[in-house]
Amino acid sequence: MNPQSPRPPRAPRGARVALSATLTLTLSFGAVASRAPAHLATSAEAKPKESKESKESKGAKGAKGAKGAKDSKGAKGAQDASDSPAIAPESASAARGVYTDLKQNPDAAVRAAITRGLIELGGADREGALDDAQKAADVAVRVAGVEEALRDPKRHKARLKWAEDALFELLTAPDEPTQRLAQGLLSSSYDLKAQRAWWGRMLKSSAAPAQRFARARLIGEGGKEAWAVVEAALKEPLESEAHKDALAAIREKNYLEAKGWAVSHAGDPGADGVVAREWIGKLAPALTDKMNKDLLKEYEKAAGDYHREGDFLKRVHLAHMLSARGELKAVQDTLVVAVKDKQGRIDKDLDDARVRVMGWEGLKACRDHEVLAAIKQKMIDLQNREEAAPAVDWLADWVRDTNDPIAKQTLEEIAQQTQYISRLEAIRALGSLKLRDSLPIIESALLNGDDPLREVSATALATIANKGDEEKLHKSLLAERKSDVVRVELLKGVARVATPETLKTVKYWLINSSRDVRAAALAALDASRVGRAELDKILGGKLQNDPDLSIRLNVWRMLLEAKSDKLDRQFKNAARWMEPEHARALGANPQIPGALFVRLAVDGGAALSAAVLDLLEARGAAAVGEVEAVLKESFSPATTERVARLYLALKREGGVGVYEELVRHRDAVVRAVGLEGLRLYGAEPSRQVTRDLIENEREPLPRVQAARAFVALSLRFPAPAPAPAPAPEPAPVPTPTP
Predict the structure, then answer these.
(1) Residue 696 and residue 681: Cα distance in Å, rounded?
(2) Residues ≥6 apart with Cβ < 8 Å to 220
(3) What is the C-alpha separation between 674 and 657, in angstroms, rounded?
(4) CB–CB of 304/311 below 8 Å?
(5) E strand segments, 612-701
């Protein structure tokens, strides 16, 4: 883009959504037109007086002609091309002839483009086009009429009620493409205050997608109004979309107004309880003292009395949370009861793992040896990992915090006893503590245990491993003859150590027949950060074409990050095996060269090309070089069409030369994109190009676009007036005869 030229107004967000739709809708609905230079702007800016034409306008305050609406006549430098006397009669006549010839074309995109073209001509042409739009069944044609009526409310005052009703109908349409286009039109036609009124109206409609859109927008705006929407949605049934949206909003926004709701639902076992406890946990530093008092009241109420039955499950939920908030002493008895055998003291249905897990987790801060002695045998006897994990983690945290000898002795005792499940978790916990004096216990289990025991022992050994343990890990890997899972865990230890001495281990296992082992060895090599020359040597063989695509992708990523040139000649081949998710994974890495994405977009299938173009579109101006390269090389009509639109959005007035090349493209839809570029940004020579295409173009859509471009360019660059005819020479005076 020329840095000296003024930046045209950026399209509103909704219009940019429309820009990413199909070209048919783009050209028909004028999403690109919102990016036009100021003297061709179709978006509106000023705020005319309030219209009283309809109750709908009053209900959705801010409709075109109402407070908060945008008006093109107020935009600085804006000029209504449709009424400008600068449109030469011959230009208007040439365009009108095209529109008349193609008015009955069956393609809705063509008819919508004609509607826009007639509106641009102004006068009777515009009024006739708007009359047709009011009666049209085609969404594209109706949107063109609605956009014009909302663009200039003073001129189209009599059409406002129709425009507002039509916009609401489009906003609540059942199909998603129409909804997105209507949302873009709403965004581009109204200021924020007016849009809020429309969102409120949509929220009261019966269309679920419209309700969700409006709810999301109102919540996104924040403030008291947003909380009012959330609070109302919380009263809907638990399984409703509104209730789910409200819970998601509380999770994301952390409304302070949600305190009362959170306290009253903190003990609930369902989704409300989960979100309430999360909310309380996030705001604990600001509200600890008062919040704890409120929660303790709820805890006491859950105990029940003569008038109210107790709720033990709610009491455990609250005890679990209060213990983490420093109130362990007040709730410890409930937590101990939760983990012990109930012996009929509570409802048998509550004697299950979920209650005991909350009990073990709640005791995490307990450092009482009497409590440990009371439930030690229960810990040893645990036979499901769901409970054993938090129980053993309690001991591990105790050792980690205070190095308590009794807690450590208990943990090691559990790691060596015969009760299998708790033994597994105890070995895992010893590994997490990285206690090297516990290595004999771990190594013994690795050598003598069955597969699950050896797997958890390998994980513990890998966690404890440090520099100096390279040979221990190498020998343990060679000694393992059975389980690939054990090998993978030990290779994680190799990756953790990652010294030059581990390279021999990595190289050995990179050629293993097991996919999981090769992947783990590759991860260990990646952690080693070897130089490019060594990496080329290690990965220069079969691994570049590994049968497992995820391994192959990681090999490519490592080589590309190291700036290796070993893959340059294989970029085209990559399009044959890479999947869209591979392109997305590589696209998140800024070190991957853009040349690879160009080849994937040009040579890949439809899904892969689309994924790459999504990536380039997200990168914006930084990817304009890759976009231009794809545009020059692409042979797929769908890819060329989309990348042409993307190029137009990125280059704007800086791509006129490319637009002139596009109007000669073999695909009609691409020619139409090029003509849209000339209409918005073309220079004076482009006027004759578009004039010639009016006569020579055979496809309907690009021909209509040529007519629209010719009118716009004739307005910007009027044809010079013909030079006046030279005055006739005076007749010679006859010489009198003597």
Answers:
(1) 22
(2) 226
(3) 10
(4) yes
(5) none
Give me the torsion for CA of 144, 146, 150, 156, rounded to 10°: 100
Band of residue 46 on the pLDDT scale cut at 50, 70, 90: very low
Q: Which two tokens stand for residue 540?
A: 């220069």
Q: Where are the alpha helices (DSSP H) in 191-234?
A: 192-203, 208-221, 223-234
Residue type, 430: L
DSSP 8-state symbol, 476: H
Strand-pairing partners, residue 190, are 69
241-262: buried (b, 16+ CB within 10 Å) or exposed (e) per residue? ebbebbbebbeebebeebbebb
Per the CB < 8 A criterion, the answer to whether 595 and 567 are in contact is no
Q: How confident is the model at residue 36 (pLDDT cuts 50, 70, 90)?
A: very low
Residue 31: CB atoms within 10 A of its CB come to 25
pLDDT above 50 (res 475)? yes
What are residue 69's DSSP bridge partners?
190
CA distances from 116 to 8, 120, 161, 321, 695 (A): 21, 6, 20, 62, 20
- Contact between 322 and 292 under an 8 Å Cβ cutoff? The reply is yes
Cα–Cα distance, 467 to 473 (Å, whole number): 11
Contacts of 77 (CB under 8 A, 6+ apart): 38, 39, 41
User: Which residues are within 8 A (CB) of 23 and not within 5 positions of it... i.e. 6 or more apart?
Assistant: 641, 642, 645, 669, 672, 673
Per this entry, what is the length of the chain? 738
The confidence score (pLDDT) of residue 387 equals: 86
Q: Shortest CA distance to 698 belongs to which of 706, 710, 689?
A: 706
Please answer whether residues 486 and 455 qualify as being in contact, where contact means their C-beta atoms are separated by less than 8 angstroms.
Answer: yes
Q: What is the end-to-end Cα distance of the chain in Å, rounded?
A: 80
Distance in angstroms (rounded) separating the CA atoms of residues 461 and 466: 10
**Six-digit token string for 286:** 């600001």
Among candidates 366, 360, 466, which has minimal Cα distance to 407?
366
Question: Rounded distance, CA 388 to CA 386, Å?
Answer: 6
DSSP 418: S
| Torsion angle of C-alpha atoms 371, 376, 382, 385, degrees rounded to 10 | 70
Residues 176, 195: Cα–Cα separation, whole Å: 19
Is it the case that residue 49 has pLDDT exceeding 50? Answer: no
Greatest extent of the chain over all pairs of C-alpha atoms, in Å: 155
**What are the tens digits of pLDDT across the range 644-675?**
999 999 998 899 999 999 999 999 999 999 99
CA nearest 511: which of 549, 551, 481? 551
The pLDDT-based confidence of 86 (bands split at 50, 70, 90) is: low
d(C-alpha 111, C-alpha 108), whole Å: 5
